[in-house]
Each structure stands twice: as structure tokens, then as C-alpha cells.
Amino acid sequence: MKIPASHPRRASLGQRHALEKGLKIGIVTPTGMIAFGRGEAFDYLLGEKTSACAKQACQAGAALLLLSKKPVLSVNGNATMLCAKDAIKLAKITGAQIEANVFYPPVKKRRQLIARHFENFGKKILGKNAAKKITGLSSNRGMVEERGIFSADTVLVMIEDGDRTQALRKNGKKIIAIDLNPKSRTAQSAHVTIVDNVVRALPEIARQAHKLRNTNTEELEKIVSAFDNWKNLEESLALIKKRA
Amino acid sequence: MKIPASHPRRASLGQRHALEKGLKIGIVTPTGMIAFGRGEAFDYLLGEKTSACAKQACQAGAALLLLSKKPVLSVNGNATMLCAKDAIKLAKITGAQIEANVFYPPVKKRRQLIARHFENFGKKILGKNAAKKITGLSSNRGMVEERGIFSADTVLVMIEDGDRTQALRKNGKKIIAIDLNPKSRTAQSAHVTIVDNVVRALPEIARQAHKLRNTNTEELEKIVSAFDNWKNLEESLALIKKRA
């Protein structure tokens, strides 16, 4: 399928093709395609760029990752196809682990495919041995790896299901969420919500983490505690209203 | 995959499952899944109900269909999976034909599958013999059936590509569009734009057509000419802003 060069949505078509490839190879699910479309609509309303308030949230997220003892970046099928390299870069800068975490079947197969996809970029990730269960979720939705999300103090989730975000929070994790819908349950349940497209947000968090890499604990804590997630979400909502 | 009864998005999951089934049987494309997701986001912002201004647009659309000599309802893969029965009902009330009109490959196969889907509901539709070309579009995007869209005076499109809507309009057709994004090119190019989910809009147009079925030409023309599509689109936008 050739897309005319004049097509006004051409900018986002690279992402679409990545998702379609993911669907073909079994990493992305049909439900993931729909979720991507929902994100597209919100991204369109946000003008398809990282807002000032999203940058602020990225800074808070970066500081929180640097402060954490066991940060984990949780990647699903969509995130894998859209931004595996960026996740690897962020993991390196922040010392985070990456865990494949999916719940749409075939779960085991998809976790393996995601892990292999990362291995192709030279990165070993967790998620193939998800034998522990997060409380508050049915077993097929709550399985995580013991040395990964299960024992993490901070989890960065991208395009995540609301039930799971809330369960992770109830399990004592600090949550950084990347979600284009400021009113989604994931956006509303996280400690730090970055209302932006993952393909822009992950590199931005990495940039901020790079800037902050030599900052002392006290200063990092100041950045995190000065960040007001509710206020930030309201600012993103105001942007959407303005653009609609 | 079982969805918990408590899931807050349960209402739209029936539609998702219909789309996923469509993907499996080859009627829906991966791109169609993404388009559905975009629609979901706008529907969410619209409160997932038919607004007063959408009802008004449905009335204008119904009047226009009743006034038309050769109205055609253009159905793609998503529309087929979401509202085939409703399209059949509307076609019956308004004397419209239905034409399968898709351009994502495999085009021929998909048109056949869509036609068969309608035949399962006892309805013969057009689209399998798309040998004529709408001017202003590349050949794979512009093929339509001679006794259908090619010779139609009015075409109702649902979840349609902007290029195609504009080309149909330039080919002299009156366009009724059902589109959840009031700023999409399809929404902005149609004569009558119904900003609503197809699963609610089609039955509403059918209801309005039923009410108007004995109205004389002059009165129907009054309804159509009194309808201000730009004003109506602004009202839908205002609703989205209010809900965001």
C-alpha cells in the first residue's frame, strides 16, 4: 500500500506501519491496534508535539527513575514496536531494567517475541519468567517477574491498562505513566503522568535523565516533590480543549 | 479473553470484538482497527451518546436521502462489522443501494467478503464489479460500481478517507458523512456531517427517515437548506471541548 506523499497524516504513518508489522509477527494484538488509534486521536488534539507540561512531567519522571533503587520500564507489544531503542537508551541512563509485560494472549509467546525483539538490539530483558502475581488482579493479568516488576520500587508504564496501573500502585510501586489521554485511569492513577506520545516522551525522559545524572539526591527529591501531577494533568487537558 | 464485568469500558467492548472478528475473517484491515481506535477516543470525548446537534444532522441526512434519486450507502470493512443490519434497514426506508467500497488490499477479496456478509443477512449489495473510476483519485482508491456510487446523486460515507470524500464531492455527489472527528477532512468536506458513532447514527437516520417518509419534496428541501453544516460542526466541537 503506497501512501501519497501529499497525505496529511503521513507523519504518523511510520508508527502505523511499525504497529502493522507488530501485528503480523505476533507482538501486537488487535486490541493494541485499537489502543494505538485512540492515542492517535489524542495526539492529534495535542498537536503531535511534546507540550511544556509534558516536558515538566518528563523531568519529574527522570528524577524519580534516578532516585529509585530498582526502577523497571514495563514494555508491552505496542511500546516494543514503537520505541524499543529509546527504551534501551533510557534503561542505560537510569540503570532501569526492562520487562516485557503483556496480558492479551498468547501471553507467553508474546513475552518471548518481545524479549527476542530486544535481543536483536543487543538488550536482554525480563518478562519470560513471570511467575509472581501482583495482588488485586486476576492471574492472567497480574503475572510479573520476581526480580523485575515484582520487586521494583518504581515502574514506568506506557499505554497501560487502568486496572493494572492501579494494582501496581496498590502494591506499593511508584508509577510513572506515559499516556496520551489525561483522563484515562492510568493517567489519573500514576504518581507522574507524561501526557505525550511514547515515541517523543521516552527520548525526552532520557534527555532529562542525562542532564540530571550528576544531581544529588536532595536536589532530585526536590524536583519530584515540587511536581504536581494533578495540576500537570489539568494543563494537558486545557491544551486539548484549546486545540479541539 | 474474558473482560471483567466491572471494566469501565465494557460498553464499547462489543464493538471491539466485532472489529476483531472482522480482522480475523479478512473484512477489517489493521488500518481499520487503528481508525476504530481514533473514533473511540472522540466518542469518549462526546460522552458516547448522540448529541442534539448530531440528531439534527441525522434529520438533514434523512431528508437528503429521501430527496435523492439514486442514493448509495457506501460501506467499508468497519461499517460492515459494526452496523450491517442498520445499513440494510436504512437502505430499505430510503430506497438507497448499498455498495462495498474499500481500498486497502486485498480489495477484490474484501469486497466479496463484505457482499457475502450482507447476503447472510438476506441483502444483495453492490461493489463486486467496481469497474468505473472516480476522477481525482489513483486507480486503486477510486474504483466504484457503475450502477452504484458512479451514478449516484448522494453518497452516505462512514469512517471514510478524506481524499475519497473530497473526490466524491468534486465528482458532483451530495455527501452525507458519519465521522466522529469534526475536524477530519471527511467531516469538513461533506454537505451533511453527522458527528456520531455509526452504531448510533445509522439507526437515528433511519428513525428520522421513517418519520419523514410521507413528507413532500418542498418540506424536505426546506429541512436540507435550513441545515448549516459548519454551524453544526462547531457545536460538536464545542461539546468535545466541554467534555475534554
Reconstruct the topology from this structure:
The structure is a homodimer of 244-residue chains.
Chain A: H1 10-25, H2 30-45, H3 52-67, E1 71-75, H4 77-94, E2 97-100, H5 107-120, E3 132-133, H6 139-142, E4 143-144, E5 154-158, H7 162-170, E6 174-178, H8 185-189, E7 192-194, H9 198-212, H10 217-226, H11 229-243
Parallel strand pairs in A: 1-2, 1-5, 5-6, 6-7
Antiparallel strand pairs in A: 3-4
Helix pairs in contact in A: 1-2, 1-4, 3-9, 3-10, 3-11, 4-5, 4-9
Characterise the protein shown here.
The structure is a homodimer of 244-residue chains. Chain A has 244 residues and is of the alpha/beta class. The first copy, chain A, has one domain (52-243): Rossmann fold (3-Layer(aba) Sandwich), CATH 3.40.50. Helix content of chain A is 57%, strand content 11%. Chain A has helices at residues 10-25, 30-45, 52-67, 77-94, 107-120, 139-142, 162-170, 185-189, 198-212, 217-226, 229-243; strands at residues 71-75, 97-100, 132-133, 143-144, 154-158, 174-178, 192-194. In chain A, the strands form 2 sheets. The first copy, chain A, has a 5-stranded parallel beta sheet with strand order 2-1-5-6-7, with helices on both faces. In chain A, helix 7 links the parallel strand 5 and strand 6 (174-178). In chain A, helix 1 packs antiparallel against helix 2, helix 3 (52-67) packs antiparallel against helix 11 and helix 4 packs parallel to helix 9. The first copy, chain A, is globular.
